[in-house]
Amino acid sequence: KRLLPLLAMFSLLLSGCGREDLSVLNPQGPVAEGQLGLITISISIMALVVVVVFVIAAYVLIKFRRKPGQNEVPVQVEGNHKLEIIWTAIPLLLVIVLAVPTIQKVFAYGEDKWNEEGVLQVEVTGHQFWWEFSYPQYDITTAQELLMPVDREVALRLRTADVLHSFWVPSLAGKTDTNPDGSINHMSLSTGNPGTYIGKCAELCGQSHGYMEFRVKAVEAEQFDAWVEAFKAPAVLPEDSQLAEKFRTNCLSCHAVGDQGGFLGPNLTGIGSRETIAGILLNDINGAKGSSPVKDNLVQWLSEPQEVKPGNTMPDPKELGFSDEEIEQIADYLANYKLDY
Ligand code: CUA
C-alpha cells in the first residue's frame, strides 16, 4: 500500500520525459553536448555513491545482524581517524570532480561573444507570453521563430520586457534567465544540423508560462540570406482597402508588418510561413502531427485569444469591433502572408 503513491510519483516523473523534441539527451550543438556531459558526470557520481552506500549497508546489515541467542551488547567503537579521513576525502574528491568542469562550462556558456568576428547577433526579449528576436546586423525584428544559419555561432543578448523568464532550447542550449532588473544576460549557441528545435520558457512567469513556446530554425546559409531579403520586402497589407485601414488603425498600433506598425506585440511579417501561431497552435507547414491549417489556427486565435493563451495582453478583436467575417478575412490575409525563402 505504501508503494502505491511512490509508484504513482515515479510514473508521473517518467511521463514528463515523453517529448522527444524537448529532451536534453539528444544534443544538436556543442553547448548542449557540453551540458549533457555535465549531466552525465553528475549522474555517474550519484549512481556510484548510491551503489557503494547500498552495498556497504547491505553487507553490514547481513553480516552483523543479531543472531538467535546472541544477547550481549556488541563492542562499542568510538572514533577511527583513518576511516574519518577516508570518508571526508572521498566526497571532497567527488565534489571537485563535479565542480571544476561545471564552473568552467557555466562561465564559458555565459560569455559575452557579441563582438566576436563572424557571429550572428540576436537580441532576445521575453514578453508575457512570447519571444521577440532582433537582428541588429540586419535591422530585423521578428517573433516566436529564431531563424539561424547552420555552422555559424549565434551570440545572444537576453532581456525581458516585463517579468522573469528563462530562455531554453533543450537540444541546443540554455537555460538563461531574462531579468527584470534591466540587466542583460549572454549566451551563445550553434548547430551543424538544419532543423527546427523547440524552445520553452523555463521560469514561472504567469498564467500562460506553460504556453510560452518558441522555435529555433537552423537553415543553410543561403536560405538564411534569402529569408533576410524576403523579410525586408515592403509590407503587405490586406487587399481590401477598408479592411486594410481597419487593420492599420487597430492591429498595427501594436504589431508590425514589414516597415509599418509598432513593437508592443509580436511582429507579423511573414506569419503565414511560421510553424506555429502564438507558439502553441501547430501550423500544418511540415505536416506535423496534430497540426492545423494556418488559417484555422489564426481564426481560432483571433476569435478567442484568452482561451488559447490566458492572461496574454492582446485585446479581443471582437471587442475592437471586428466581425466574424472580418476575422476570417484577416486570418486569410495573414495565412497567405508568407516569406519565400
Ligand atoms: Cu515566460 Cu515562463
TrEMBL record:
- Catalytic activity, EC: 7.1.1.9
Instruction: Tell me, in one coarse class, where this protein mainly resides.
Output: membrane
- GO molecular function annotations of the record: copper ion binding; cytochrome-c oxidase activity; heme binding; oxidoreductase activity
Q: Which GO terms describe its biological process?
A: ATP synthesis coupled electron transport
Q: Which UniProt keywords apply?
A: Copper, Electron transport, Heme, Iron, Membrane, Metal-binding, Respiratory chain, Translocase, Transmembrane, Transmembrane helix, Transport
For this protein, the record's InterPro entries field holds: CcO_II (IPR045187), CcO_II-like_C (IPR002429), Copper_CuA (IPR001505), Cupredoxin (IPR008972), Cyt_c-like_dom (IPR009056), Cyt_c-like_dom_sf (IPR036909), Cyt_c_oxidase_su2 (IPR014222), Cyt_c_oxidase_su2_TM_dom (IPR011759)
Task: Look up the record and name the cofactor or cofactors this protein needs.
Answer: Cu cation
Q: What does the entry comment about cofactor binding?
A: Binds a copper A center.
Domain Cytochrome oxidase subunit II copper A binding residues, every copy:
117-230
Q: Which reaction is recorded as catalysed by this protein?
A: 4 Fe(II)-[cytochrome c] + O2 + 8 H(+)(in) = 4 Fe(III)-[cytochrome c] + 2 H2O + 4 H(+)(out)
Q: Where are the transmembrane segments?
A: 35-62, 83-103
Subcellular localization is given as:
Cell membrane; Membrane
GO cellular component terms, alphabetically, are: plasma membrane
Q: Which Pfam families match?
A: COX2, COX2_TM, Cytochrom_C
- Domain of life, source organism: Bacteria
Domain Cytochrome c, by residue range, is: 238-338
How does this chain sit within the bilayer? Multi-pass membrane protein
Q: Which NCBIfam families match?
A: CoxB
Q: Indicate the family of this protein.
A: Belongs to the cytochrome c oxidase subunit 2 family.
- Give the protein's function: Subunits I and II form the functional core of the enzyme complex. Electrons originating in cytochrome c are transferred via heme a and Cu(A) to the binuclear center formed by heme a3 and Cu(B).
Task: Specify the protein name.
Answer: Cytochrome c oxidase subunit 2
Give the taxonomic lineage as stored in the record. Answer: Bacteria, Bacillati, Bacillota, Bacilli, Bacillales
